[in-house]
Amino acid sequence: MSYGVRYPSLSGQRSRQFPSAVKWLLIVNIALFVVYYFAVRVGYGNYFYYFGLIPRAVVELFAVWQLFTYMFLHDPLGFSHILFNMLTLYIFGRVLESDWGSKRFLQFYLICGVGAALCVIIANALFGNMDTRTIGASGAIYGVLLAYGLLYPEQIVLFSFLFPIKAKYFVMIIGAIAFLSSFGGSGSGVSHVAHLGGMGFGYLYLKSRYARLDLFASLEGRYREWRMRRAKRKFQVYLRKRGSDPNRFVN
């Protein structure tokens, strides 16, 4: 799932910060990966099985915890899965968290992850793959990438370590790759539906939030205009009264 992206170096105060939500997400993901990795090699990997996302378990057994827990597990048979996800979270996530704050960033991250899980369940139900197991933070990570591309569209990244490209175009490309790959089945073991689901829910979250902000800004602007008109009328009344006073002083 790695696209060979060389991430931008961020200068100034933002680059020296290590926001708490990203820090703890990294710690939890890496710690669980290490435990899962050794558990599999000593024969205890089955203990983690029902913490992955299994559509049949969620729908029929109400294992709703899987909507959250699946995104904290990564493939214990290799390092590329967790490496790409955690590197992306570290570089792009800390920028978003520095601007948004920890609470809002964590909310966004979890919404994208859970939204991706719901999309996986629906897709597997439609195509009869209810026992397919999905793990990984990719849905949430793709939501983070989408947010970065939308909010910092002119930032330059190096696609495939060679080609400088603006973040907005990078997001378009990986979105197109995920969309086209979703028609190729699941033989690669990569859930492209989760990628699309994370991006889709991330977009809806941002769209709804900024729509609310625009609405509040519009209402606040109208309120300020009303107060200005009201103050202007009061001042005009005051000036007329001053103009009719024969005993006024002139300076």
Describe what this molecule looks like in 3D.
The chain has 9 helices and 2 strands, in the order H-H-H-H-H-H-H-E-E-H-H. With 251 residues, the protein is mainly alpha-helical. Strands 1-2 form a two-stranded antiparallel sheet. A hairpin with a 3-residue loop joins strand 1 and strand 2. Helix 2 packs antiparallel against helix 5, helix 5 crosses helix 7 and helix 6 crosses helix 7. The longest helix has 52 residues. It starts with 12 loop residues before the first helix and ends in an 8-residue tail after the last helix.
Topology:
Blueprint: H1 13-16, H2 20-41, H3 55-60, H4 66-69, H5 80-100, H6 102-126, H7 138-151, E1 156-159, E2 163-166, H8 167-181, H9 192-243
Antiparallel strand pairs: 1-2
Helix pairs in contact: 2-5, 5-6, 5-7, 6-7, 6-9, 7-8, 7-9, 8-9
Number of helices: 9
The poorly predicted ranges are: 1-13, 185-189
Rg to the nearest angstrom? 26 Å
CATH architecture: Up-down Bundle
Order of helices and strands: HHHHHHHEEHH
Strand order of the largest sheet: 1-2
CATH superfamily: Rhomboid-like
As for the CATH topology, it is Rhomboid-like fold
Rough outline: elongated
The number of domains: 1
Strand percentage lies at under 5%
Average pLDDT taken over every residue: 80
Summarize the structure.
The chain has one domain (13-211): Rhomboid-like fold (Up-down Bundle), CATH 1.20.1540.10. It is 65% helix and 3% strand. The protein has helices at 13-16, 20-41, 55-60, 66-69, 80-100, 102-126, 138-151, 167-181, 192-243; strands at residues 156-159, 163-166.
